[in-house]
Amino acid sequence: MADVVLTAESMTSGYNGVAAVSDVNLTVSAGEVVSILGSNGAGKTTTLLTLAGLLPAMGGQVTALGAPVDHRRPYRMARRGIRLVPDDRGLFSTMTVRDHFRLARSTADRAREELVLDRFPALARLQSRTVGLLSGGEQQMLAIAVALLAEPRILMVDEMSLGLAPLVVEQMLPAIRDLARDENIAVVLVEQHVELALAVSDRALVLGHGRVVLEGSAAELLADRDRLEAAYFGAADSEAKQDRAV
Ligand SMILES: Nc1ncnc2c1ncn2[C@@H]1O[C@H](COP(=O)(O)OP(=O)(O)OP(=O)(O)O)[C@@H](O)[C@H]1O
Q1: pTM, full prediction
Q2: Is pLDDT above 50 for 245?
Q3: Which of 40, 86, 197, 207 shows the smallest number of beta carbons within 10 Å?
Q4: Looking at ligand 1, which residue's alpha carbon is closest to its atom 12?
Q5: Which of 22, 35, 46 to mutate to test ligand 1, by most ligand atoms within 8 A of the CB atom?
Q6: 206-245: buried (b, 16+ CB within 10 Å) or exposed (e) per residue?
Q7: Cβ < 6 A, ligand 1 pocket
Q8: Are residues 196 and 170 in contact, defined by beta-carbon separation less than 8 angstroms?
Q9: Cα–Cα distance between 178 and 119 in angstroms, integer?
Q10: Closest residue to atom 24 of ligand 1, CA basis
Q11: Which residues pair with 26 in a beta bridge?
């Protein structure tokens, strides 16, 4: 049986008591890549933050690595091996690449650092560069490298492709898939690049107005583009029609 490491059951969450996502069900196994897709405002980041324990669920249950996710103890979640790379990458712009590695050293030994640098050799050459002078792709590599130093069992990445050149995204997304397979990490991606995300994912779900409007294996979703587009754009279209009717 697949080693399920993350589950959401009827998960509802949002802000100031108002639900932004409702009734999300999800399971992710070790080594699997699952993408959360959907148009702007659909609820992707809210879902990811709730899965990571950074936002409280208003209803339902989230379980990670066999225990309920507890938003009141984010450090405990991190220690248990859950890492989120936020869409702003969570780096310090005036610190160097080496500083970021040093900061993470309490959780990483030298051998782990070598392994991570093998995956992103560009970072080895950029050790003394401050983050503010790195390209977007290099910053993204660093953000993921810092997360990997902690040997995560669940890695969540929010909009990895944000601000990156398409060619860089085409390199980085397969690197994430390889990571999941090689290190048996469960990966949850929030992505706007639907085709590229599906190309590296095992499964995906599409959110519309905070609800799951379509889900399936990446192969199934790619094989039925009409259905995928209807799910993806349907919510936005109906919203535009309502606006025009006013
Ligand atoms: N801090 C917040 N306070 C109140 N409402 C919020 C907050 N963050 C997001 N929202 C609202 O929750 C809904 C879902 O937002 P969310 O950021 O999860 O969507 P998304 O799918 O990630 O969007 P995008 O692709 O544009 O980043 C939106 O209506 C948004 O306005």
Answers
A1: 0.91
A2: no
A3: 40
A4: 20
A5: 46
A6: bbbbbbbbbbbebeebbeeeeebebbbebbbeeeeeeeee
A7: 15, 20, 38, 40-46
A8: yes
A9: 10
A10: 40
A11: 8
Q: What is the pLDDT of residues 180-227, one digit of tens each?
A: 999 999 999 999 889 999 999 999 999 999 999 999 999 999 999 899
Q: Retrieve residue 141's tokens.
A: 């590599």
Count CA within 13 A, CB hemisphere, residue 158: 18
* 153 Cα: distance to centroid of ligand 1 (angstroms): 26
Q: For 147-168, what is each residue's pLDDT tens digit?
A: 999 899 999 999 888 888 888 8
Tens of pLDDT, residue by residue over 84-126, are: 999 888 899 999 999 998 888 766 688 888 888 988 888 999 9
Residue 29 contacts by C-beta under 8 Å, 6 or more apart in sequence? 2, 3, 4, 5, 186
The second-level CATH assignment, the architecture, of 4-81+152-245 is 3-Layer(aba) Sandwich (3.40)
In the chain, where does the domain assigned CATH 3.40.50.300 lie? 4-81+152-245
Tell me if 14 sits within 8 A of 20, measured CB to CB: yes
54 C-alpha to ligand 1 centroid (Å): 14
Q: Is the dihedral of CA 237, 230, 6, 110 positive or negative?
A: negative
